[in-house]
Design goal:
The protein has 672 residues and is mostly helical. It has 23 helices and no strands. The protein folds into three domains: 216 residues, no CATH class; 166 residues; 117 residues, no CATH class. Helix 3 packs parallel to helix 5 and helix 18 runs antiparallel to helix 20. The N and C termini lie far apart (119 Å). The mean pLDDT is 80.
């Protein structure tokens, strides 16, 4: 029988009995129960006996445990007393030896001071000897074969001076040594420059040791930069036709050899930084300056487009020049050059292009004007002239797109302070031409209106519509261009390497402010506002041309005699006998012919309805105002006026328009 289930915390008597009962099988249940009870009683008796034996053993062992605990307590107390006694002995020993240790420390300090004093006396004596010896050598002149010995003397005298920092005459000795350094450097500068110019590694190495002994490595590097820059500048001046390609070849060869020279011969710890400084100074000191050479070549360009292509080629050549240093900096990872030094080199590389950029605006403006002059034709017919403007605007989208792409190739985002003024000049030119033709159309309209032949069939109306469409299309092209410029300016060029941020290298402070204002301005091109006003003026002119026949008829309304000069017999006429008067029938006929004529000139399916709705609404409003101006109206005149109003309302409704409240309210008042 398994007794483990009786020891479980969640023991259930019923479950255990049911489980035991299920295992009885075919055995008689009473026999099975009697046997199970007997076995359980036997197990209980065994457990009770085992518990009694364990209890007896525990009670018997308790006195022995207590005795052992008392013994351990006594031993612990004895150990504590022993530790206290040992601590007292240690303190006594420390107290006895402390005075002896202090005496030894004072003796050691005294010994150190005596040794320092002896060393200082020897150094002072050595200093005087070395100073006199060095002075004699400098007065007699230094042969090149004695340079190593002179470098050793300089090292020794420098070390000797370092030992005399506590000497009262230290400052005077230091000044004396600096004077000796300056004399030595003056004596060595000319032969050093000669050795550097000849690129004689052996001779130069001797002077390097001399300068390092004096601690004047910076003077050595300055002499090297002067010699290297002078050599490169002389090679540039010997060229028959100086160019960026020749400069690139010169600098590429120079960079490949100067790094090894700096590291191996001059023993420079920062060769890349010195190389960058050298070429920065060189690019700024070349004569003739690369910017002057490029400016002279730019003047030789026959057309503005050739000048723009020359600027693109210049950017490409400068990028190739920059790539020489980019590859050099990226391939040499053991030295990190400060970004400010790299940026100065980048500014020097792109300096010629930076000086040429202001000329780009004039070149691009001239290119735009030439394209306009080539395409534009001064036709006598107003409509043909307007269509020529539409053709011009359609072509201008391609011109602006190509000019924008070329401008980006010249200077990236840095070109926008110069590109936007060219676009503004182009927009201003087209706006003035559109405005001039608009005045011709207006003059034609006034002339036809005076002769009574205005309206939708006049020559002025299709010309005004076509010209308004051209102005609106140009506004859309400029909006798309400015949106693209704004997005590209917002993105900009970002790189950890200053040589890659060409836009930053090409921007001066004034142009950077201009670029920021362009980025934040809601209307970067001022002439767009003038073009927008001109477009609105043309739309207004087209509408006025449409309204003109209506106005000429409505102007007669207040002066018609039919409103009051009616005899008694005519007053008795029934309403069905009255018909719209002539002025109103002419207005109605004109309005009914407008849809088919508008469709001939307007490509957009909704545009005719817009114009028609505007003319109908304006006709109703103006007619209401004219009726109010009638000073005297009898009963028959009122009935005639109501007939005219009903006719006009039916025409407007047939055309799909809505009668404005002014006319409906006036009709209601006349009926009362």
């Amino acid at each position: 029988m398994d007794l483990k289930s009786f020891g479980e915390e969640e023991f259930d008597t019923k479950k255990w009995i049911n489980k035991a009962w299920s295992t009885s099988g075919n055995q008689d249940k009473e026999v099975f129960v009697a046997n199970t009870v007997s076995r359980l009683q036997l197990y209980m008796k065994q457990l009770t006996n085992s518990l009694d034996e364990t209890t007896t053993q525990i009670v018997t062992s308790i006195p022995r445990v207590l005795q052992s605990a008392s013994s351990l307590q006594a031993e612990g107390a004895l150990l504590q007393q022993t530790l206290l006694s040992l601590e007292q002995k240690v303190l006594a020993v420390e107290e006895e030896t402390g005075q002896s240790i202090s005496s030894l420390q004072r003796i050691d300090q005294l010994k150190t001071r005596l040794e320092n004093a002896a060393t200082a006396l020897r150094s002072a004596d050595k200093w005087a000897v070395l100073a006199r010896s060095l002075d004699r050598v400098l007065e007699a002149g230094v042969p090149r074969d004695q340079l190593p010995a002179l470098a050793d003397q300089l090292t020794a005298i420098t070390t000797s001076l370092q030992m005399l920092t506590d000497d009262p005459d230290y400052e005077s000795k230091r000044l004396q040594l600096e004077t000796l350094y300056s004399r030595c450097e003056a004596a060595a500068s000319a032969p050093l420059a000669e050795a550097l110019a000849q690129r004689d590694a052996e001779k130069t190495a001797a002077y390097v040791a001399l300068y390092k002994a004096m601690g004047r490595t910076n003077s050595l590097l300055r002499a090297w930069r002067r010699a290297a820059a002078s050599s490169a500048a002389a090679e540039w001046q010997r060229l028959d036709a100086p160019s960026l390609a020749a400069l690139q070849a010169t600098l590429q060869h120079s960079c490949s050899t100067q790094v090894e020279w700096l590291s191996d011969v001059l023993q420079c710890e920062t060769p890349l930084a010195e190389l960058v400084r050298l070429h920065t100074d060189l690019l700024l000191s070349l004569e003739p300056a690369p910017s002057k050479v490029l400016s002279a070549n730019l003047k030789l360009c026959g057309t503005p487009q050739e000048g723009i292509e020359f600027l693109i080629d210049t950017r490409t050549e400068l990028d190739q020049l920059k790539n020489i240093f980019t590859a050099l900096l990226e391939n040499t990872r053991h030295e990190i050059v400060q970004p400010t030094i790299i940026k100065e080199l980048g500014r020097a590389i792109y300096g010629p292009l930076r000086e040429l950029l202001p000329k780009y605006s004039d070149l691009q403006t001239q290119a735009f004007n030439m394209q306009v002059d080539t395409l534009e034709q001064d036709q006598e017919d107003l409509l043909e002239r307007s269509r020529s403007f539409q053709n011009l605007v359609e072509r201008s989208e391609g011109w602006l797109s190509a000019a924008h792409a070329a401008a980006r190739n010249i200077a990236g985002g840095a070109i926008y302070p110069h590109f936007v003024p060219a676009v503004e000049a182009f927009t201003s030119t087209l706006t003035m031409k559109i405005s001039s033709h608009s005045r011709r159309i207006e003059t034609e309209f006034l002339s036809s209106s005076a002769s009574g032949s205005g309206g939708v069939l006049s020559r002025a109306f299709p010309g005004a519509l076509a010209l308004a469409a051209a102005a609106q299309a140009l506004l859309g092209i400029l909006a798309a261009l400015l949106s693209g410029i704004h997005e590209q300016m917002a993105e900009g060029e970002k790189s950890y390497n200053p040589l890659q941020n060409v836009e930053d290298l090409l921007l001066d402070d004034s142009h950077r402010q201009r670029l920021t204002s362009l980025l934040n301005a809601s209307e970067p091109i001022a002439s767009v506002a003038a073009l927008r006003r001109e477009s609105q003026t043309l739309k207004t002119l087209a509408v006025n041309i449409l309204r003109d026949p209506v106005h000429r008829q409505l102007d007669k309304v207040p002066l018609l005699p039919v409103w009051s000069d009616n005899d008694a017999l005519s007053t008795d006429l029934p309403d069905f006998a009255l018909s719209p008067q002539e002025y109103m029938t002419q207005i109605g006929q004109y309005l009914m012919t407008l849809p088919q004529h508008l469709e001939m000139h307007l490509a957009d399916a909704q545009a005719p309805f817009v114009y028609l709705s505007e003319v109908c609404n304006h006709t109703c409003t103006s007619y209401a105002e004219k009726i109010i101006q009638i000073t005297n109206m009898d009963a028959l005149g009122t009935r005639r006026c109501l007939t005219d109003i009903q006719y006009l309302c039916s025409v407007v409704e047939d055309l799909g328009g809505t009668v404005p409240p002014q006319l409906t309210n006036l009709e209601r008042s006349l009926r009362q």
